[in-house]
Amino acid sequence: MAQTHFTAAAFLVLVLISSSVLMAESGIGVNWGTLSLHKLSPSTVVDLFKQNKIEKVKLFDADPYCLNALRGSGIQVMVGIPNEMLSVFSSSTDACDLWVSQNLSRYMGKGGVDIRYVAVGNEPFLTSYSGQFQSYVVPALLNLQQSLAKANVANFVKLVVPCNADAYESSLPSQGAFRSELTQIMTQIVSFLNTNGSPFVVNIYPFLSLYGNSDFPQDYAFFGGTNHAVTDGANVYYNAFDGNFDTLVAALNKLGYGQMPIVIGEVGWPTDGAISANLTAAKAFNQGLINHVLSNKGTPLRPGVPPMDIYLFSLLDEEAKSILPGTFERHWGIFSFDGQAKYPLNLGLGNGLLKNARDVEYLPSRWCVANPSRDLSGVANHMKIACSNADCTTLNYGGSCNEIGAKGNISYAFNSYYQVKKQNSQSCDFDGLGIVTFLDPSVGDCRFLVGITDSSSSNVEASGGQLYYESSCCLYVLHSPLFFFCF
After folding, report:
1. pLDDT tens over the chain, length 487 residues
2. Gap between the Cα atoms of 100 and 97, Å rounded
3. Per the domain annotation, does 204 fall within a domain?
4. Same-domain pairing of 411 and 288
5. Alpha-carbon distances of 243 from 25, 197, 236, rounded to whole Å
6. Which domain holds residue 445?
7. Tens digits of per-residue pLDDT, 397-433?
8. Residue 326 and residue 371 share a domain
9. Pair (151, 290) in one structural domain
10. Does 266 participate in catalysis according to the annotation?
11. E strand or H helix at 29, and its extent?
């Protein structure tokens, strides 16, 4: 009887332990993108993380300035590998060894950076890429795994492949399946992830569903209840996030991995640049999402088991991002470019509402506006130059500065350029059409910004429509197959 009693007790302990793992609270992290024309110093950003008790951060590359600033912070980091590098990594183990040495090993260890994941590509199966990266992903994964093992970090660092939600499809969540052309490769990837103890990382954007489909019910994108619930057998879905998440669960189940942990690599709502992209909607979505996930309610197909982690997209606005997907792309931040909270938001990390970045150094309080005494009929080319070098997306339909009038539009464009150029006196000339003022020209919700002097030694510039990322050790041409390793 003693033997039986011990076994039953042990079994009960195992059940309790298993339950505690399944019910563990999701981690809330953020994406830290750096395509900004007004770049906060990495040390200021890391201090912002600490103030807000943010302990999980996702980077889109191995930016040395960001990684150095994260040393000793205790923040868990996901480092990204751009899609353009996958081709080389799929065919060269030496390239993988070098990248691991230069971008992981050198930062890890006592007092270093707590790197937990490496994201191999970013949404490499996106339909708009027409399969150009598809064949590289699995070979790159296998080569990089060998490199992690050689560097003795494979037990600490896990490889993942962030996928866009368009990798799977279905009219109902329970019928979810990966796109037919991805079935074989997804089977290989999911098997690899499972073998190596990695989660499946997916990016879910209800905003894009709303933005791209005029028939999409707006209330279904949020978490406050809906008049357009989706009934799927015995399950009822009241928001797009749960429906999307369970579509992935069903797709994984079809491959035999229905219990695989899932991490939300990107999720958020933009605040400007398009209809439905505004502060009110962003606050409602992000707070609703956080409350929903931290409630541990889970979803109909995974009751009581929320996502393992979620990474909000994003920390800061990025005024140098491509606007090909839409002019809202530069306005995803929960903080503006200068680290100031855009709206009250509680991340559920025991720190109350968002706290602003400290010790941000601004340029003097002066702005460049249209000269009221000059004929502005010939301003079109100046506007084009200003907006190709600065961000004017708030002037677009649905944007916060869309209704400030023609002269207001000119002033906004002039000022945006003037601030990007660090208020250089010549940058407000525009052949005499611009003039410097010390009176803030902001109107209502339309904010005329003042630049910051805080900047890292890395820089993003716009030149001829091509964005360049420069640092002291490397040059990346973004959205180009060319790249250089950092040495």
Report:
1. 434 343 444 433 333 333 333 445 789 999 999 999 999 999 999 999 999 999 999 999 999 999 999 999 999 999 999 999 999 999 999 999 999 999 999 999 999 999 999 999 999 999 999 999 999 999 999 999 999 999 999 999 999 999 999 999 999 999 999 999 999 999 999 999 999 999 999 999 999 999 999 999 999 999 999 999 999 999 999 999 999 999 999 999 999 999 999 999 999 999 999 999 999 999 999 999 999 999 999 999 999 999 999 999 999 999 999 999 999 999 999 999 999 999 999 999 999 999 999 999 999 999 999 999 999 999 999 999 999 999 999 999 999 999 999 999 999 999 999 999 999 999 999 999 999 999 999 999 999 999 999 654 444 433 333 333 333 333 333 333 333 333 2
2. 5
3. yes
4. no
5. 20, 25, 9
6. 367-451
7. 999 999 999 999 999 999 999 999 999 999 999 999 9
8. no
9. yes
10. yes
11. strand 27-32
Question: Is 38 part of a structural domain of the chain?
Answer: yes
Tokens of 432: 């005499």
pTM of full prediction above 0.85? yes
Q: Is 338 within a domain?
A: no
Check 25, 84, 123, 318 and give the catalytic one: 123
| 296/426 same-domain check | no
Going by the DSSP 8-state scheme, the letter that residue 347 receives in this structure is -
**Residue 311 and residue 201 share a domain:** yes
What CATH number does residue 31 fall under? 3.20.20.80
180 CB contacts (<8 Å, ≥6 apart)? none
Q: Quick check: is 485 in a domain?
A: no
Q: Is-contact 164 129, C-beta < 8 A?
A: no
- Pairing type for strands 177-178 and 475-477 reads unpaired
> Rounded to the nearest 5°, which phi and psi values hold at 405?
85, 165
- At 14, give phi and psi (nearest 5°): -60, -40
Rounded to 5 degrees, φ, ψ at 396 are: -70, 165
Q: Give the active site residue among 266, 318, 319, 329.
A: 266
- Please state, as a whole number, how many other Cβ atoms lie within 10 Å of the Cβ of residue 115: 23
Give the number of domains in the chain.
2
CA 371 to chain centre: 39
Q: Are residues 309 and 395 in the same domain?
A: no
CA distances from 49 to 31, 55, 239 (A): 11, 7, 29
Pairing between β-strand 235-237 and β-strand 230-232 as defined by DSSP bridges: antiparallel
Q: Are 153 and 106 in contact (CB under 8 A)?
A: no
Alpha helices in 255-325 (DSSP H): 279-294
At 388, list the tokens.
């190709």
Does residue 319 sit in the same domain as residue 372? no
Q: Is 123 a catalytic residue?
A: yes
